[in-house]
Amino acid sequence: MPYATALRCRECARTYPLSPIAVCEWCFGPLEPTYDYAGITAALSRAEVATGPPSMWRYAPLLPVAAEGRIDLGAGFTPLVRAERLGAALGLERLWVKNDTVNPTGSFKDRVVSVALTAARQFGYAVAACASTGNLANSVAAHAAAAGMPAYVLVPADLEPAKLAASAVYGATLVAVEGTYDDVNRLSAELVDCHPDWAFVNVNLRAFYAEGSRTLAFEVAEQLGWRAPDHVVVPVGSGSQLTRIHRGFAELAAVSLLEEVPKVRVSGAQAAGCAPVAQAFASGAAHVRPVRPSTIARSIAIGNPADGGYALDVVRETGGAVASVSDEEIVAGIRLLARTEGIFAETAGGVTIATLAKLAAAGVVEADELVVAYVTGNGLKTVDALAGSSGPMVTIPPRLDAFAELVGEAR
Ligand SMILES: *Cc1c(COP(=O)(O)O)cnc(C)c1O
Ligand SMILES: [Zn+2]
Protein backbone atom coordinates (compact mmCIF):
# COMPACT_ATOMS: atom_id res chain seq x y z
CA MET A 1 0.00 0.00 0.00
CA PRO A 2 2.22 2.72 -1.31
CA TYR A 3 1.62 6.07 0.39
CA ALA A 4 -0.99 5.33 3.05
CA THR A 5 0.85 4.71 6.30
CA ALA A 6 -1.71 3.82 9.00
CA LEU A 7 -5.29 4.25 10.15
CA ARG A 8 -5.93 6.97 12.70
CA CYS A 9 -8.94 7.51 14.93
CA ARG A 10 -10.66 10.85 14.31
CA GLU A 11 -11.60 11.11 17.97
CA CYS A 12 -8.64 9.92 20.05
CA ALA A 13 -5.88 9.90 17.38
CA ARG A 14 -4.78 6.34 18.25
CA THR A 15 -3.24 4.68 15.22
CA TYR A 16 -3.63 1.18 13.81
CA PRO A 17 -1.91 -0.69 11.02
CA LEU A 18 -3.68 -0.42 7.64
CA SER A 19 -6.26 -3.19 8.08
CA PRO A 20 -9.98 -3.81 7.75
CA ILE A 21 -11.17 -2.58 11.15
CA ALA A 22 -14.54 -0.83 11.37
CA VAL A 23 -13.95 1.59 14.26
CA CYS A 24 -11.39 2.52 16.90
CA GLU A 25 -11.13 -0.34 19.37
CA TRP A 26 -10.53 2.13 22.18
CA CYS A 27 -13.29 4.75 21.68
CA PHE A 28 -15.39 3.47 18.73
CA GLY A 29 -14.46 6.60 16.74
CA PRO A 30 -14.19 6.40 12.94
CA LEU A 31 -10.81 5.62 11.37
CA GLU A 32 -9.08 7.41 8.50
CA PRO A 33 -5.89 6.58 6.60
CA THR A 34 -2.86 8.78 7.09
CA TYR A 35 -0.54 9.44 4.16
CA ASP A 36 3.09 10.11 3.44
CA TYR A 37 2.43 13.45 1.76
CA ALA A 38 6.14 14.05 1.07
CA GLY A 39 6.28 10.78 -0.82
CA ILE A 40 3.17 11.66 -2.80
CA THR A 41 4.56 15.10 -3.59
CA ALA A 42 7.62 13.46 -5.11
CA ALA A 43 5.52 10.95 -7.06
CA LEU A 44 2.66 13.07 -8.36
CA SER A 45 3.11 16.27 -10.37
CA ARG A 46 0.48 18.05 -12.43
CA ALA A 47 2.16 16.64 -15.55
CA GLU A 48 2.03 13.14 -14.04
CA VAL A 49 -1.68 13.50 -13.35
CA ALA A 50 -2.30 14.69 -16.92
CA THR A 51 -0.79 11.51 -18.37
CA GLY A 52 -2.76 9.22 -16.04
CA PRO A 53 -5.83 7.20 -17.04
CA PRO A 54 -9.08 9.12 -17.71
CA SER A 55 -10.54 7.89 -14.42
CA MET A 56 -10.21 8.53 -10.69
CA TRP A 57 -7.13 6.31 -10.78
CA ARG A 58 -5.09 9.18 -12.25
CA TYR A 59 -4.82 10.05 -8.53
CA ALA A 60 -3.67 6.56 -7.51
CA PRO A 61 -0.85 7.78 -5.20
CA LEU A 62 -3.49 9.65 -3.17
CA LEU A 63 -5.60 6.53 -2.70
CA PRO A 64 -5.03 4.15 0.25
CA VAL A 65 -4.60 1.00 -1.87
CA ALA A 66 -2.16 -0.29 -4.46
CA ALA A 67 -3.32 0.48 -8.00
CA GLU A 68 -2.02 -2.78 -9.48
CA GLY A 69 -4.79 -5.36 -9.69
CA ARG A 70 -7.42 -2.74 -8.88
CA ILE A 71 -11.12 -3.34 -9.43
CA ASP A 72 -11.88 -0.64 -11.93
CA LEU A 73 -14.91 -0.14 -14.17
CA GLY A 74 -13.68 3.33 -15.16
CA ALA A 75 -15.22 5.45 -12.40
CA GLY A 76 -14.42 9.12 -12.22
CA PHE A 77 -12.85 11.88 -14.31
CA THR A 78 -16.43 12.83 -15.13
CA PRO A 79 -17.22 16.11 -16.92
CA LEU A 80 -17.08 19.44 -15.11
CA VAL A 81 -19.68 21.40 -17.04
CA ARG A 82 -19.72 25.21 -17.29
CA ALA A 83 -23.40 25.74 -16.45
CA GLU A 84 -24.12 29.13 -18.01
CA ARG A 85 -27.82 28.61 -18.60
CA LEU A 86 -28.48 27.19 -15.14
CA GLY A 87 -26.32 29.94 -13.65
CA ALA A 88 -28.35 32.60 -15.45
CA ALA A 89 -31.56 31.06 -14.09
CA LEU A 90 -30.18 31.19 -10.55
CA GLY A 91 -28.37 34.54 -10.79
CA LEU A 92 -24.91 32.98 -10.53
CA GLU A 93 -22.13 34.24 -12.81
CA ARG A 94 -19.62 31.40 -12.49
CA LEU A 95 -21.43 28.12 -11.93
CA TRP A 96 -20.09 24.68 -12.79
CA VAL A 97 -21.76 21.27 -12.44
CA LYS A 98 -19.69 18.18 -11.64
CA ASN A 99 -21.64 15.62 -13.64
CA ASP A 100 -21.19 12.35 -11.76
CA THR A 101 -24.34 10.90 -13.35
CA VAL A 102 -22.13 9.39 -16.07
CA ASN A 103 -20.20 6.97 -13.87
CA PRO A 104 -20.27 3.25 -14.83
CA THR A 105 -23.31 2.45 -12.67
CA GLY A 106 -24.71 5.97 -12.74
CA SER A 107 -23.57 7.43 -9.43
CA PHE A 108 -20.54 8.69 -7.53
CA LYS A 109 -20.66 5.47 -5.46
CA ASP A 110 -18.48 3.87 -8.15
CA ARG A 111 -15.61 5.95 -6.78
CA VAL A 112 -15.87 4.64 -3.24
CA VAL A 113 -16.60 1.07 -4.29
CA SER A 114 -13.63 0.88 -6.64
CA VAL A 115 -11.35 1.74 -3.70
CA ALA A 116 -13.18 -0.43 -1.15
CA LEU A 117 -13.27 -3.59 -3.26
CA THR A 118 -9.67 -3.09 -4.33
CA ALA A 119 -8.81 -2.96 -0.61
CA ALA A 120 -11.03 -6.00 0.02
CA ARG A 121 -9.17 -8.01 -2.57
CA GLN A 122 -5.79 -6.92 -1.26
CA PHE A 123 -6.83 -8.00 2.25
CA GLY A 124 -7.84 -11.40 0.84
CA TYR A 125 -11.62 -11.20 1.14
CA ALA A 126 -13.61 -13.47 -1.14
CA VAL A 127 -17.11 -12.02 -0.65
CA ALA A 128 -18.36 -8.44 -1.08
CA ALA A 129 -21.29 -6.97 0.86
CA CYS A 130 -22.91 -3.66 1.69
CA ALA A 131 -25.83 -1.87 3.32
CA SER A 132 -27.22 0.55 0.78
CA THR A 133 -29.80 3.21 0.00
CA GLY A 134 -29.67 1.88 -3.59
CA ASN A 135 -26.76 3.31 -5.55
CA LEU A 136 -24.13 1.61 -3.42
CA ALA A 137 -25.85 -1.74 -4.03
CA ASN A 138 -25.75 -1.14 -7.80
CA SER A 139 -22.08 -0.30 -7.66
CA VAL A 140 -20.98 -3.12 -5.34
CA ALA A 141 -22.92 -5.65 -7.43
CA ALA A 142 -21.27 -4.42 -10.65
CA HIS A 143 -17.71 -4.20 -9.33
CA ALA A 144 -18.01 -7.58 -7.59
CA ALA A 145 -19.24 -9.11 -10.85
CA ALA A 146 -16.25 -7.70 -12.72
CA ALA A 147 -13.93 -9.05 -10.04
CA GLY A 148 -15.61 -12.47 -9.97
CA MET A 149 -16.58 -12.04 -6.31
CA PRO A 150 -19.95 -13.16 -4.94
CA ALA A 151 -21.85 -10.23 -3.42
CA TYR A 152 -24.61 -9.73 -0.86
CA VAL A 153 -26.27 -6.34 -1.06
CA LEU A 154 -28.80 -5.26 1.56
CA VAL A 155 -31.32 -2.52 0.79
CA PRO A 156 -34.63 -1.25 2.19
CA ALA A 157 -37.41 -3.40 0.66
CA ASP A 158 -39.43 -0.43 -0.64
CA LEU A 159 -36.64 0.97 -2.85
CA GLU A 160 -37.16 2.33 -6.39
CA PRO A 161 -37.72 -0.63 -8.81
CA ALA A 162 -34.93 0.58 -11.14
CA LYS A 163 -32.42 0.43 -8.32
CA LEU A 164 -33.48 -3.08 -7.31
CA ALA A 165 -33.21 -4.31 -10.92
CA ALA A 166 -29.85 -2.58 -11.42
CA SER A 167 -28.39 -4.58 -8.53
CA ALA A 168 -29.95 -7.97 -9.26
CA VAL A 169 -28.88 -7.97 -12.92
CA TYR A 170 -25.22 -8.34 -11.96
CA GLY A 171 -25.90 -11.62 -10.17
CA ALA A 172 -25.58 -10.30 -6.64
CA THR A 173 -27.76 -11.74 -3.91
CA LEU A 174 -30.13 -8.83 -3.39
CA VAL A 175 -31.53 -8.84 0.14
CA ALA A 176 -34.57 -6.59 0.59
CA VAL A 177 -34.92 -5.76 4.27
CA GLU A 178 -38.23 -4.63 5.72
CA GLY A 179 -37.26 -1.31 7.26
CA THR A 180 -35.42 1.95 6.67
CA TYR A 181 -31.78 2.29 5.64
CA ASP A 182 -30.91 2.80 9.29
CA ASP A 183 -32.43 -0.63 10.04
CA VAL A 184 -30.46 -2.15 7.15
CA ASN A 185 -27.29 -0.53 8.43
CA ARG A 186 -27.80 -1.85 11.96
CA LEU A 187 -28.36 -5.37 10.61
CA SER A 188 -25.16 -5.11 8.56
CA ALA A 189 -23.16 -4.09 11.61
CA GLU A 190 -24.41 -7.28 13.30
CA LEU A 191 -23.68 -9.40 10.22
CA VAL A 192 -20.05 -8.29 10.18
CA ASP A 193 -19.54 -10.18 13.43
CA CYS A 194 -21.11 -13.38 12.05
CA HIS A 195 -19.28 -13.17 8.72
CA PRO A 196 -15.74 -11.98 9.39
CA ASP A 197 -14.76 -13.26 5.93
CA TRP A 198 -17.10 -10.80 4.16
CA ALA A 199 -15.94 -7.37 3.02
CA PHE A 200 -18.73 -4.99 4.02
CA VAL A 201 -17.57 -1.99 2.04
CA ASN A 202 -19.20 0.58 4.29
CA VAL A 203 -18.64 -1.20 7.60
CA ASN A 204 -15.33 -3.03 8.05
CA LEU A 205 -13.80 -1.35 4.98
CA ARG A 206 -15.32 2.07 5.67
CA ALA A 207 -11.96 3.77 6.28
CA PHE A 208 -10.87 2.82 2.74
CA TYR A 209 -14.28 3.26 1.11
CA ALA A 210 -14.72 6.88 2.18
CA GLU A 211 -11.38 7.91 0.67
CA GLY A 212 -12.67 7.44 -2.88
CA SER A 213 -14.85 10.56 -2.52
CA ARG A 214 -11.76 12.80 -2.28
CA THR A 215 -11.29 12.33 -6.03
CA LEU A 216 -14.38 14.56 -6.44
CA ALA A 217 -12.23 17.43 -5.15
CA PHE A 218 -9.03 16.44 -6.95
CA GLU A 219 -10.73 16.30 -10.35
CA VAL A 220 -12.58 19.59 -9.92
CA ALA A 221 -9.34 21.42 -9.07
CA GLU A 222 -7.59 19.89 -12.08
CA GLN A 223 -10.53 20.63 -14.40
CA LEU A 224 -10.61 24.26 -13.26
CA GLY A 225 -6.97 24.58 -14.33
CA TRP A 226 -5.50 23.74 -10.93
CA ARG A 227 -7.48 26.03 -8.72
CA ALA A 228 -10.15 25.37 -6.12
CA PRO A 229 -13.69 26.74 -6.33
CA ASP A 230 -14.91 29.39 -3.89
CA HIS A 231 -18.00 27.45 -2.88
CA VAL A 232 -19.22 23.87 -3.36
CA VAL A 233 -22.72 22.46 -2.81
CA VAL A 234 -22.80 18.77 -1.90
CA PRO A 235 -25.71 16.42 -1.16
CA VAL A 236 -25.62 14.93 2.35
CA GLY A 237 -26.63 11.35 3.15
CA SER A 238 -24.16 9.94 5.66
CA GLY A 239 -22.09 13.13 5.27
CA SER A 240 -19.05 11.12 4.21
CA GLN A 241 -18.80 12.63 0.73
CA LEU A 242 -19.03 16.21 1.99
CA THR A 243 -16.27 15.79 4.55
CA ARG A 244 -13.97 14.03 2.06
CA ILE A 245 -14.45 16.68 -0.64
CA HIS A 246 -13.45 19.28 1.93
CA ARG A 247 -10.34 17.33 2.94
CA GLY A 248 -9.50 16.60 -0.70
CA PHE A 249 -9.02 20.28 -1.54
CA ALA A 250 -6.75 20.78 1.45
CA GLU A 251 -4.69 17.69 0.58
CA LEU A 252 -3.93 19.09 -2.87
CA ALA A 253 -1.96 21.80 -1.09
CA ALA A 254 -0.28 19.18 1.13
CA VAL A 255 1.09 17.44 -1.98
CA SER A 256 1.93 20.73 -3.78
CA LEU A 257 -0.62 20.29 -6.59
CA LEU A 258 -2.09 23.59 -5.34
CA GLU A 259 0.17 26.38 -4.09
CA GLU A 260 -1.71 27.10 -0.89
CA VAL A 261 -4.49 25.64 1.21
CA PRO A 262 -7.60 26.87 -0.59
CA LYS A 263 -10.51 28.51 1.20
CA VAL A 264 -13.47 26.57 -0.09
CA ARG A 265 -16.87 27.28 1.43
CA VAL A 266 -18.74 23.98 1.75
CA SER A 267 -22.54 23.86 1.80
CA GLY A 268 -24.72 20.80 2.27
CA ALA A 269 -28.01 19.85 0.61
CA GLN A 270 -30.70 17.67 2.19
CA ALA A 271 -34.29 16.68 1.53
CA ALA A 272 -36.78 18.21 3.97
CA GLY A 273 -38.12 14.69 4.59
CA CYS A 274 -34.71 13.64 5.96
CA ALA A 275 -32.78 16.68 7.11
CA PRO A 276 -31.06 15.90 10.40
CA VAL A 277 -27.92 17.87 9.47
CA ALA A 278 -29.86 20.86 8.10
CA GLN A 279 -31.96 20.92 11.28
CA ALA A 280 -28.88 20.90 13.50
CA PHE A 281 -27.35 23.67 11.37
CA ALA A 282 -30.48 25.82 11.55
CA SER A 283 -30.91 25.42 15.30
CA GLY A 284 -27.23 25.91 16.11
CA ALA A 285 -27.13 22.50 17.78
CA ALA A 286 -23.78 20.90 18.52
CA HIS A 287 -24.99 17.41 17.60
CA VAL A 288 -27.11 15.84 14.88
CA ARG A 289 -30.33 14.35 16.19
CA PRO A 290 -31.56 11.25 14.24
CA VAL A 291 -34.84 11.45 12.30
CA ARG A 292 -37.10 8.94 10.55
CA PRO A 293 -36.80 9.55 6.78
CA SER A 294 -39.71 10.18 4.43
CA THR A 295 -38.65 11.62 1.07
CA ILE A 296 -38.42 10.78 -2.63
CA ALA A 297 -34.65 11.34 -2.36
CA ARG A 298 -34.05 7.75 -1.30
CA SER A 299 -30.33 7.68 -2.00
CA ILE A 300 -29.69 10.24 0.75
CA ALA A 301 -32.46 9.15 3.13
CA ILE A 302 -30.22 8.39 6.10
CA GLY A 303 -31.85 9.38 9.37
CA ASN A 304 -28.80 8.74 11.53
CA PRO A 305 -25.82 9.92 9.45
CA ALA A 306 -22.47 8.44 10.47
CA ASP A 307 -20.49 11.53 9.45
CA GLY A 308 -23.28 14.04 10.16
CA GLY A 309 -21.47 15.77 13.02
CA TYR A 310 -18.24 16.08 11.04
CA ALA A 311 -20.17 17.46 8.04
CA LEU A 312 -21.77 20.05 10.32
CA ASP A 313 -18.32 21.07 11.59
CA VAL A 314 -16.95 21.47 8.05
CA VAL A 315 -19.90 23.62 6.98
CA ARG A 316 -19.60 25.86 10.03
CA GLU A 317 -15.82 26.18 9.80
CA THR A 318 -15.87 27.12 6.13
CA GLY A 319 -18.75 29.59 6.26
CA GLY A 320 -21.18 27.44 4.28
CA ALA A 321 -24.73 26.42 5.15
CA VAL A 322 -26.93 23.31 5.13
CA ALA A 323 -30.42 23.77 3.76
CA SER A 324 -33.23 21.39 2.86
CA VAL A 325 -35.86 21.29 0.12
CA SER A 326 -39.30 19.72 -0.26
CA ASP A 327 -40.11 16.83 -2.59
CA GLU A 328 -41.79 19.33 -4.98
CA GLU A 329 -38.66 21.48 -5.01
CA ILE A 330 -36.55 18.36 -5.66
CA VAL A 331 -38.59 17.54 -8.78
CA ALA A 332 -38.37 21.19 -9.90
CA GLY A 333 -34.59 21.01 -9.41
CA ILE A 334 -34.33 17.87 -11.57
CA ARG A 335 -36.34 19.56 -14.31
CA LEU A 336 -34.44 22.84 -14.15
CA LEU A 337 -31.07 21.08 -14.50
CA ALA A 338 -32.35 18.93 -17.36
CA ARG A 339 -33.86 21.88 -19.23
CA THR A 340 -30.94 24.25 -18.83
CA GLU A 341 -27.95 21.91 -19.11
CA GLY A 342 -29.16 18.65 -20.65
CA ILE A 343 -28.21 16.67 -17.55
CA PHE A 344 -30.76 14.24 -16.13
CA ALA A 345 -30.12 13.73 -12.43
CA GLU A 346 -31.73 11.48 -9.90
CA THR A 347 -33.55 12.85 -6.87
CA ALA A 348 -30.30 13.52 -4.96
CA GLY A 349 -29.23 15.77 -7.87
CA GLY A 350 -32.56 17.54 -7.63
CA VAL A 351 -31.80 18.12 -3.95
CA THR A 352 -28.44 19.69 -4.83
CA ILE A 353 -29.87 22.00 -7.51
CA ALA A 354 -32.94 23.04 -5.49
CA THR A 355 -30.77 23.71 -2.44
CA LEU A 356 -28.33 25.71 -4.56
CA ALA A 357 -31.29 27.77 -5.84
CA LYS A 358 -32.43 28.39 -2.28
CA LEU A 359 -28.97 29.36 -1.04
CA ALA A 360 -28.41 31.63 -4.06
CA ALA A 361 -31.76 33.36 -3.51
CA ALA A 362 -30.84 33.89 0.14
CA GLY A 363 -27.45 35.37 -0.81
CA VAL A 364 -25.54 32.59 1.01
CA VAL A 365 -24.09 31.46 -2.32
CA GLU A 366 -22.91 34.75 -3.82
CA ALA A 367 -23.45 35.80 -7.43
CA ASP A 368 -19.75 36.24 -8.27
CA GLU A 369 -18.37 33.19 -6.45
CA LEU A 370 -16.91 30.33 -8.47
CA VAL A 371 -19.45 27.67 -7.52
CA VAL A 372 -19.39 23.91 -8.15
CA ALA A 373 -22.60 21.90 -7.65
CA TYR A 374 -22.05 18.17 -7.23
CA VAL A 375 -24.66 16.17 -9.15
CA THR A 376 -24.07 12.64 -7.97
CA GLY A 377 -26.60 10.26 -9.52
CA ASN A 378 -28.39 9.46 -12.79
CA GLY A 379 -32.06 10.31 -13.36
CA LEU A 380 -32.83 7.08 -15.21
CA LYS A 381 -32.80 5.36 -11.80
CA THR A 382 -35.58 7.49 -10.34
CA VAL A 383 -37.90 8.26 -13.28
CA ASP A 384 -40.89 7.47 -11.05
CA ALA A 385 -40.22 10.71 -9.18
CA LEU A 386 -41.24 12.61 -12.31
CA ALA A 387 -44.60 10.88 -12.77
CA GLY A 388 -47.13 13.41 -13.97
CA SER A 389 -44.68 16.29 -14.10
CA SER A 390 -42.15 15.51 -16.80
CA GLY A 391 -43.60 18.01 -19.25
CA PRO A 392 -45.52 17.95 -22.51
CA MET A 393 -46.33 14.66 -24.16
CA VAL A 394 -48.95 14.36 -26.84
CA THR A 395 -50.24 11.33 -28.73
CA ILE A 396 -51.31 11.56 -32.35
CA PRO A 397 -52.34 9.15 -35.12
CA PRO A 398 -49.55 8.57 -37.70
CA ARG A 399 -50.79 11.23 -40.16
CA LEU A 400 -49.37 14.53 -41.39
CA ASP A 401 -52.59 16.44 -40.78
CA ALA A 402 -52.66 15.34 -37.16
CA PHE A 403 -49.11 16.62 -36.69
CA ALA A 404 -49.92 19.86 -38.51
CA GLU A 405 -52.92 20.43 -36.30
CA LEU A 406 -50.79 19.77 -33.22
CA VAL A 407 -48.14 22.36 -34.04
CA GLY A 408 -50.69 24.83 -35.40
CA GLU A 409 -49.41 24.66 -38.99
CA ALA A 410 -51.69 25.63 -41.86
CA ARG A 411 -51.74 22.85 -44.46
C1 LIG B 1 -24.98 7.91 -1.34
C2 LIG B 1 -25.34 9.10 -2.16
C3 LIG B 1 -25.14 10.41 -1.70
C4 LIG B 1 -24.71 10.72 -0.29
O1 LIG B 1 -23.37 10.41 0.01
P1 LIG B 1 -22.89 10.33 1.53
O2 LIG B 1 -21.44 10.12 1.42
O3 LIG B 1 -23.63 9.19 2.16
O4 LIG B 1 -23.28 11.63 2.18
C5 LIG B 1 -25.41 11.46 -2.56
N1 LIG B 1 -25.86 11.25 -3.82
C6 LIG B 1 -26.07 10.02 -4.29
C7 LIG B 1 -26.57 9.86 -5.69
C8 LIG B 1 -25.81 8.90 -3.50
O5 LIG B 1 -26.02 7.68 -3.99
ZN1 LIG C 1 -10.39 6.34 19.18
Short description:
The chain is α/β, with parallel strands linked by helices.
Strand content: 15-25%
CATH C-level of the domain at 80-106 and 210-386: Alpha Beta
Total number of beta strands: 13
**Annotated CATH topology of the domain at 80-106 and 210-386:** Rossmann fold
Mean pLDDT: 95
C-alpha-based Rg, rounded: 21 Å
Strand and helix order: EEEHHEHEHEHEHEHEHHEHEHHEHHEH
Query: Ligands bound here?
Result: pyridoxal-5'-phosphate, zinc ion
The N- and C-terminal alpha carbons lie at a distance of 72 Å
Low-confidence parts lasting 5 or more residues at pLDDT below 50? none
What does this structure look like?
With 411 residues, the chain is of the alpha/beta class. The chain has a domain at 80-106 and 210-386: Rossmann fold, CATH 3.40.50.1100. Helices cover 37% and strands 15% of the residues. The protein contains 15 helices and 13 strands. The strands form three sheets. The chain has a six-stranded mixed sheet, with helices on both faces. Strands 8-7-6-9 form a four-stranded parallel sheet, sandwiched between helices. The chain has a three-stranded antiparallel sheet with strand order 2-1-3. Helix 4 (109-122) packs across helix 5 and helix 10 (240-254) crosses helix 12 (308-318). It starts with a strand and ends with a helix. The relative contact order is 0.13. Pyridoxal-5'-phosphate binds at residues 107, 109, 133, 135, 235-241, 299-300, 346, 348, 376-377.
